[in-house]
Write a sequence for this structure.
């Protein structure tokens, strides 16, 4: 038999980071999670899987209207026509939805209970599936402890939405330990909640498939589901299958050898041309990061707004499925010997030393953050959102800003050409 394991679909969740730019692929952004889920349904039918496992966060909280639910029911009906069963546990985002709890799904869909773990035995396949849904958004206890022991006569699957032993960037919901999961005697643990794919263990299989569609720049690379083949009561094959329709990517370009911004543009364009093929022909949303000690450093910083638009134009001119820049980051520096300049016994050396030594302490940064708190309250919610939200009071952001100011001052003092 074969089955699909997916998680963190987040139907109708907005993709963040591009929508505020002129010419951005708004339609692709709005429909990406649905189109990725369509790919999941078509893959299940094409591979003739016996069932599909959805390990939580199918939705993204309460819907704006019933269209999200109607869409899901239609896709489940399509799987029903193909004789494919679907098993779901609710995750923290699903538990936040009031509408989801009253949704009537086709009879091929099983949603596991919230009060205690449920168990479904598929006699025709010799499979037992165990699962428990989140009753509320914040579940801090180890749900896996109450899952029943596996039946040695069956192929046992645990369906669980969990942070496992803790993952950076994810809420610590339903924590558990690998040793505890192993002790249940299951052959496969189908996990959800962590958006990066990971094969945690192969004995037994403990897998995070990652989310089906990246939603912002912190979710880069291929996104999809896991196709599992079972024979003789054991997993005989396991492979990732891409489902995403728009791929997020970091494009890092070293411009050390670039003498001016025009040469930088040539190197950036060469990097851009490789990205669509690397993404399998999909549309790409990229963050461009320029690095290196380059003679172009001062000119780029002096006209950063202009060069950001130039780089956007280069991306837009490629055609094809499309390449859009989410952000441009200048992580460059002057190609001069800072130590030599600082040691100079003249006015320039003294001023540069004063600038270098003007490193604000924690107290000064905290005071600065307090002064900016009023500004933070006036910022629109989308700027404070989950995708690298712009918080002007964040100490790390303030320190980076101070470093940028220092670089700008030094560049101005040295002249545009670094002389």
């Amino acid at each position: 038999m074969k089955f699909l394991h997916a998680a963190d679909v987040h139907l109708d969740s907005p993709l963040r980071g591009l929508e505020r730019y002129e010419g951005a692929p708004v339609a692709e952004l709005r429909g990406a999670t649905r189109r990725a889920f369509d790919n999941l349904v078509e893959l299940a039918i094409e591979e003739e899987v016996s069932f599909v496992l959805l390990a939580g966060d199918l939705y993204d909280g309460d819907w704006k209207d019933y269209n999200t639910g109607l869409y899901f029911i239609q896709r489940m009906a399509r799987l029903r026509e193909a004789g494919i069963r679907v098993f779901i546990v609710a995750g923290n985002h699903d538990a936040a939805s009031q509408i989801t709890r009253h949704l009537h799904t086709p009879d091929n869909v099983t949603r596991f209970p919230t009060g205690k773990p449920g168990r479904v035995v598929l006699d025709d396949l010799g499979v037992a599936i165990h699962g428990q849904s989140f009753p509320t958004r914040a579940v801090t206890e180890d749900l896996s402890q109450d899952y029943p022991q596996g039946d040695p006569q069956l192929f046992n699957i645990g369906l669980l939405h969990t942070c496992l032993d803790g993952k950076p960037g994810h809420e610590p919901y339903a924590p558990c330990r690998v040793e505890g999961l192993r002790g249940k005697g299951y052959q496969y643990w189908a996990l959800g909640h962590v958006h990066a794919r990971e094969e945690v263990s192969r004995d037994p299989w403990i897998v995070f498939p990652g989310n089906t569609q990246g939603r912002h720049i912190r979710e880069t690379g291929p996104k999809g589901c896991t196709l599992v083949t079972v024979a003789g009561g054991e997993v005989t094959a396991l492979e990732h299958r891409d489902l995403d329709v728009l791929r997020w990517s970091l494009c890092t370009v070293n411009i050390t050898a670039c003498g001016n911004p025009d040469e930088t543009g040539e190197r950036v364009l060469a990097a851009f041309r490789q990205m669509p093929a690397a993404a399998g022909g999909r549309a790409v949303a990229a963050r461009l990061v320029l690095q290196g000690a380059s003679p172009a450093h001062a000119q780029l910083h002096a006209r950063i707004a202009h060069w950001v638009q130039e780089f956007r134009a280069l991306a837009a001119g490629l055609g094809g499925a499309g390449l859009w820049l989410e952000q441009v980051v200048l992580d460059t520096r002057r190609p001069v010997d800072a130590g030599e300049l600082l040691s100079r016994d003249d006015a320039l050396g003294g001023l540069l030393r004063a600038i270098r030594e003007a490193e604000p302490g924690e107290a000064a940064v905290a005071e600065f953050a307090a002064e900016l708190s009023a500004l933070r309250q006036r910022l629109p919610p989308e700027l404070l959102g989950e995708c690298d939200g712009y918080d002007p009071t964040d100490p790390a952001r303030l320190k980076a800003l101070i470093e940028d100011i220092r670089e700008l001052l030094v560049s101005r003092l040295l002249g545009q050409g670094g002389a």
